[in-house]
Structures are given as C-alpha cells and as structure tokens.
C-alpha cells in the first residue's frame, strides 16, 4: 500500500495547545521526537475520547443549526473555547485526523461507514448509507502489537473517536475475529469480514467489509453495528454531503434526537497506562451512567433549564444564552413543567 504524505491544517502551536487540552505533556509533541508506536497511539486515542465528548448539540442549540467542518472552526469550538464542547462523528473525526497528521502519522485517512440504527437499544435492520467515519492509521510491524504476522511489514488500525456509547475504547487492528475487552464491564468488541445484506455484487473481486461487532458478555450474541471498507477513503466533499444529510434531513435520527456521551478516564492495569473506566450519556432528557458494566438512570430532565444544567453538571458543557434560546421549536425541545 502506497500512501502520500498528507499535510495537516494545524500548526505546531496548535498541536501543543491540543495536547495540553486533552491532558498530555509535550513529550508527545513532534518536537520531542516520540516513537509513534501503538502505546503512543493508544494513549492519544484514550485522551481524545475522554476529553472530547460525542455530542450533536450544534444541530439543536445554535442559531443557524449548521455543522461546520472546517478544521480551524472545529479547533476553536472544541479546543480553544474551553466550554466542554465536542462534536458528532465527523466533527471529532476530522479534528482528530488533522491532529494525527500533525503529530507525524502522515498516512492517516478517513473511511466512510454505514451503520445500523438501534431498535430497543440494539442495532437492527438494514445498514444506512454513509453517516459515519473512522480514521485509519498504519503502523510498522515492529511498532504494532501481536497478532501481526511476522512477515507483514505493516498493520492498519481503525480509530473511532466519534461513535458514542458502544464505540471502541481502544485503537482496533484490522484483524479478523480478534476479540478485545471494551474497558467497561464485560463488553467485548471485534471486527469480522463479510458482505452486508444489501450488497448485490459478491463475485470475484467483490469487497468484503470490516464489520464492527459488540457483545455485552461472553454468553451473549454478537451484534453487528457498522461496516466500512478500509480501501475507500472519504475526502472533504464526501464529508460535506454526508454531514448535510445527517444534520439537516428530517428523516435523520440526528435531527430528531439530542445526544451527548462522555467517557471517563482512569489508570490502566499496567503502571503508566490509561483506559476508559466509564461513561455518562444523555439521550433527549435522560441522563444515564455506566461505570460497572450496568447502566443506571441518574436524572430525567423535563424542562430546558433542567437539561442545560445537566449538560453542565454531567458533561462540563456550558451553553450561551443565545444557544439555549435557539432550540425553541426544534423537535428535541423539552416542554415539560418543572416539579
């Protein structure tokens, strides 16, 4: 595989600001010549997803309800403004992609993802069109982790920093049937290779997809959540088309549901490691938390002031008065009466 060196939109000063923001010291800065191995990549990934929440508030709590994907706009919103903001998948993934490249992962690129929507909390039914993206990074075999074959000079990893609650909490090597513990409780995750049901061409040369699956315990069934081809790169114009549908189309779940997910960070099982230790989730008016493998309801919001306060208390997200007022008339607006 030949990869062209791709430039980043972020300067060395912005890289330093980002590292400080996510809680990493300057030994991770390119000026310190760090080894870009799996340990580095994993630490960076965990700090990213625990510092930058998944949230689609811009669709609902903003005057124009428009998601802007310019890397500099994203940097200002997420890193510079310091109001606890993150973004939905394309916002978080584009920021992370440009940061990966600025840090020295020259071949980092994004791949388009088809997902399955949830029914009663479980992914079900057909796959959607492209509504999600993941980053793909390649490491030399001597900087990757087993089970990379000794003869293979490279190992690709998928890094999903914008999927939310059941998303992977570690970089995932593109290796079939390799099971990973997903940090919280007993949930396990893996990739398998296969065709999605609506694929018609399955003959010679047909592209099998990487299918992300999870199960909540070893005695539970695997659930297929999303699928992508690592050979199909998403570029700026693709982002714009997908983001417009995802954020604006009436039939898009994002236009009807208000979401926020923040992961908690703690010490790993090996000294010096970090890992995800839990998560808190907001879906419309319900705040739920999971730190043991079991999800508990911690708050139900019925009014806008209650939800705005919950966003600050549980997620560290502070909205401006103008943003708060802009949800009036939107589908997710809470119109209940305070007790």
From TrEMBL:
<protein>
    <submittedName>
        <fullName>Arylamine N-acetyltransferase 2</fullName>
    </submittedName>
</protein>
<dbReference type="InterPro" id="IPR001447">
    <property type="entry name" value="Arylamine_N-AcTrfase"/>
</dbReference>
<dbReference type="InterPro" id="IPR038765">
    <property type="entry name" value="Papain-like_cys_pep_sf"/>
</dbReference>
<dbReference type="GO" id="GO:0016407">
    <property type="term" value="F:acetyltransferase activity"/>
</dbReference>
<dbReference type="Pfam" id="PF00797">
    <property type="entry name" value="Acetyltransf_2"/>
</dbReference>
<comment type="similarity">
    <text>Belongs to the arylamine N-acetyltransferase family.</text>
</comment>
<dbReference type="InterPro" id="IPR053710">
    <property type="entry name" value="Arylamine_NAT_domain_sf"/>
</dbReference>
